[in-house]
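Aim 2 progress update. The chain analyzed this quarter is reproduced below.
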Amino acid sequence: MGARLFTVYLVYLNFMTSSTALEVSMKEHVEGIKNLVKNLANHTFPTCDLVLFTEVADFKTAEKRCATFNLAATSTGKGNLATVNTEFRNEEISMLLNIALPISDTKRRKFRYAGNRWVWTGLRKTKNIDEEHIRKIKNRAPYNALDWEWYDGSQPDVYSNWHPGQPDQRPLKKGRKSNEYSKSGRCGENRCRQNQMRLDHDGKWDDAFGFEKHPYACDYTGRYIVSAELKSWQDAKQACEVAGLTLASIRSLDETEELRQALLFFLGESGFEECAGTHKVKAKNLDPSKLYCNEKDSEGKSKWDPKHWAWIGGNDHEEEGNFKWLDGSPAIFDNFPWINKAGGNNGGKTNFDSSGEIEKSGGQDSMTISKWGEIDDEYGDVERPFACECPRL
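Predicted structure tokens:
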């Protein structure tokens, strides 16, 4: 993974410009993220900047999939393959690849060019790729950083991390032309060039043919990182903080929807997504098309099962009925999506130890959100998935 990732000195991550950010070491951040994302659905591995997908795809397919990947409620733009234009982001994507597809040092050397040893990024050669330029060279194209481009239009002239001797712009050898890629119109027979960049477990770059298949990484503009690990509210809070994050807050209905979409994407659907509001209707008066809302899923679980809900940071631990986020700000906003009769206590008292951490959770004083977007207050010792929040800028 590279020795630099495990340097034990305090650093501020590139997103640590917010008052909600926590100061952690790079090692703590790496281990914290690893513990958060290790069991997510869809073979996804997110950070606050990137999401790695372990399914393999050629470059154009990966590009299309990233274009449709956007969980940010406040953004309407298309997504794109990952921008790796700083040392931090290079180490970050290398970290994700090592977490998702770990390999030993021996295999790393022996199977250097295996498909799952690399990840597609968003760097492409966009200039000097026409037929006239190709005819001027026999074996290698001289490297010019300004010929290569990220999706934001910037070039790798300030930061790059190419393997020695790369990019070599090697053409396909005779007899090894990809018919499928040739038909796409991107290159003629025996003239395909390595015009896309892939990154390996050590964070080193290589140019590659677009028809090769690798895992891929997309830029992530969302606010939340969801964990499938089952934890109590207090343990979930601590797990987020270990990674330099905080247990999630929602400040609007738009953010509620963004978090709901993140839960569905990273944890998978529950089967009860159309059940919002049905708890307010008596079973005998329930719309026949939604009768299943009072039933159980294929595993015998009801919609109240903890796996269909995730911890967030809202709580009324200090004063009953006065819900706050972890930064002390009020949690309730207009049209707050409480479920029916939520916000009570159902008896019991929360006790704190000398450090201010929860020693015993006696009442329903910790917020949880369902996969269909409703909020409930629950007993904090119930173990369920949880959502961490990336620092707010």
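Helices lie at 26-37, 59-67, 87-100, 105-110, 131-135, 179-183, 233-242, 253-267. The radius of gyration is 24 Å. These observations will guide the mutagenesis experiments scheduled for the next reporting period.
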